[in-house]
Amino acid sequence: MNRRLFVFLGSAALLSGCKEPQSEGANQFVRAGDSVVIKSVRVYNTGQNSVQGDLVYVVNLTYTNSLGLELTPRINHFILEDEQKVRHAALEGGSYLLAGITNDLSTMKRGESRDFTVGFNVYQNTTGTLFYDPT
Questions:
Q1: DSSP-assigned letter for residue 108
Q2: Is the pTM of this model over 0.70?
Q3: Which of 43, 68, 129, 133 gives a 20 to 30 Å CA spacing to 81?
Q4: CATH number of the domain at 21-132, out of 3.30.1360, 3.30.950, 1.10.101, 2.60.40?
């Protein structure tokens, strides 16, 4: 009986350290740019004050290659441009919040659509437009 209680309390302690997403109304922070459809936005507090921000927006989106040529997508070419025209490139790692996310980075034909999950390190209440910059 004591072992069950110990396992239960240990599990509860581990779970209490997990950060829950603040998702209510999160789509208001990220608008879709050309060739992008926003499916969902989850907002996580990182608990760290960094130069880039204290939140991570994890965005599920569909991107359609409308460039007129084949494209090999790169995660850091997804850009969130905020109201002050500051460009935030999508994170390619560096956050536990992005662990386990995999995206298909194979070549996309012209007109092909594909789902991606990307993260942006931003400050609280950052709003902006998400688009793909091939340059």
A1: B
A2: yes
A3: 68
A4: 2.60.40
